[in-house]
Design brief:
253 residues, alpha+beta, globular
C-alpha cells in the first residue's frame, strides 16, 4: 500500500538529473547495530540515518542500472529518454543515452525553429532548477538531517508495518516542508516528499518512492516524480513534470 502523500533533456541535464535518483547510503550491518526504533534521541536517529545514506551509496557503486525519464509540460508529453547509468571512477553517476523518443514535431522555418529551440532551453533550465533542489533534499547534509529530526513530528506510517513517519517545515528553506517514511528496524527510507517555494510565483514539489534490495542490504529510488509549478497571468498555472524510473540493477562485470 502506498502512503498518503503530500502532493507531483540535453545529455548534461540528464546526467545531472540522474544523480538525485540514487539516494545515498545504508547497510544491513549498520542498521542491525543500532535500529532506529531503539532510540528516543533525535540526534541519534539523525546519526543513524546519515550513516545509512553514506553506506548505501558505497554499496551501489558496484552496480549499473537503467533510467526511463519522461518529461511533460502542461500535461503534454515532450520526450522520453532511456539511459544506462553507473558510478564512474570519480564517484559521480555517468549516463549513456540508449534511445530518445521526441514527441514534439520539429518546426519548419528559421523563426519557428528558433522559437521551439528557445522553448526547449527554457524547459531544460527548469529541469536544472528542479534537479538542484531535489539533490538538496535527497542529499541533506548531516547537519540538515539533525535539524530535520529535531523539528520533525513523529507518527506511525499508516499502511506499513514497523514504519515511522516524520514531517517537518522550514528545514532547508523558509516555507519548505519535508515528509519521510522510514523503516524502524533498518532506517531505510520508504518514501520521501518535499515542497519548496522558489519565489512568490514558482515552486517545486517532489515525491521519491524507494525499493529495497534486501539480498544486498541496500535500497534505491525506484520512482521519482518532480513538478515545477509556475503561477501564470490571470491565476493559471504552468507545470513541468519529470517522472523517472530506475531498474535492472546488475553487478558490474
Amino acid at each position: 500500500m502506498h502512503p498518503t502523500q503530500p502532493s507531483w533533456l540535453s545529455r548534461s541535464t540528464l546526467s545531472g538529473l540522474a544523480i538525485f535518483v540514487l539516494l545515498a547510503s545504508g547497510s544491513r550491518e549498520a542498521a542491525a547495530q543500532a535500529p532506529i526504533s531503539t532510540s528516543k534521541d533525535p540526534a541519534q536517529w539523525a546519526l543513524i540515518y546519515s550513516e545509512v545514506l553514506h553506506k548505501n551509496r558505497e554499496l551501489l557503486k558496484d552496480y549499473s542500472w537503467q533510467y526511463r525519464v519522461e518529461v511533460q509540460e502542461n500535461a503534454r508529453l515532450l520526450y522520453i529518454d532511456h539511459l544506462d547509468a553507473r558510478y564512474g571512477a570519480d564517484g559521480r553517476i555517468e549516463t549513456i543515452r540508449l534511445s530518445q523518443d521526441l514527441q514534439i514535431k520539429p518546426r519548419q522555418g528559421p523563426l519557428l525553429k528558433a522559437g521551439q529551440e528557445a522553448r526547449l532551453r527554457e524547459v531544460e533550465a527548469k529541469i536544472e532548477t528542479l534537479k538542484r533542489r531535489i539533490g538538496d533534499y535527497v542529499y541533506m547534509t548531516r547537519g540538515q538531517v539533525v535539524d530535520f529530526f529535531d523539528k520533525a513530528r513523529k507518527t506511525e506510517a499508516i499502511g506499513y508495518d514497523n514504519a515511522l513517519r516524520l514531517d517537518a517545515e522550514d528545514v532547508l528553506t523558509k516555507g519548505d516542508s519535508i515528509t519521510i517514511f522510514g523503516d524502524k528496524s533498518t532506517a531505510f527510507p520508504i518514501f520521501l516528499a518535499f515542497t519548496v517555494p522558489l519565489d512568490e510565483q514558482t515552486g517545486i514539489r517532489c515525491e521519491v518512492h524507494f525499493r529495497h534490495l534486501r539480498q544486498l542490504g541496500a535500497f534505491y529510488a525506484a520512482k521519482v516524480s518532480g513538478r515545477f509549478v509556475e503561477l501564470g497571468r490571470g491565476g493559471g498555472t504552468k507545470a513541468l513534470v519529470i517522472d523517472v524510473e530506475s531498474f535492472d540493477y546488475v553487478a558490474k562485470p
